[in-house]
Amino acid sequence: QVQLVESGGGLVQAGGSLRLSCAASGSILSLYTMAWFRQVPGKQSELVAGITSGGSTNYADSVKGRFTISIDNGKNTADLQMNSLRPEDTAVYYCNADITIRPGPQAHRIFWGQGTQVTVSS
After folding, report:
1. What are the two backbone dihedrals, phi and then psi, of residue 40, each rounded to the nearest 5 degrees?
2. Which backbone phi and psi does 88 adopt, to 5 degrees?
3. What share of the chain is helix, strand, coil (3-state, %, to 5)?
4. Which of 1, 15, 47, 114 sits in a 20 to 30 Å window from 34, CA-based?
5. Which pLDDT tens digit goes with each residue over 15-66?
6. Which residues, in sequence order, are bridge partners of residue 25?
7. Is the Cα torsion angle 90, 87, 19, 30 positive or negative in sign?
8. How many Cβ atoms from other residues are within 10 Å of residue 79's Cβ?
9. Residue 104's pLDDT band (boundaries 50, 70, 90)?
C-alpha cells in the first residue's frame, strides 16, 4: 500500500556531511510521524531521529547537535541532515513512517524503507 524509498547514503570522510531523504508514496491519507533508524551488523537497531507531522523532534543523544530531521507533509518526505559525521555513525539507515492510510479507526500503519548505507571513513 505504501512505499518508503531512502536516498542520499554513501561514503564520506569523518567530519563531513550527508543528507538522507525518505520519500513516501502510495495510499497515504496523512503522515503521523516519520523517523530514521540505523543498524550495524551484530547490534540492535536504534532510533536516530524522529519527527511528528507537527514538527516535534527527538534525537539519540549521540547525534544531538549534529543531525537534523525535517518533514514536508505536502511532499510526504523526511530528510536527515547529518553533519560532523564520525566513523561510529557508519550503519544502514532506515526510514520509518507511521501513516494514516484511510479514514476511521485503526487507520494508522507502520512502514519501513529498504535502507541506505552510510559509511564514514577515518
Report:
1. -120, 155
2. -70, -10
3. 5, 60, 35
4. 15
5. 999 999 999 999 899 889 999 999 999 999 999 999 998 999 999 999 999 9
6. 3
7. positive
8. 20
9. confident
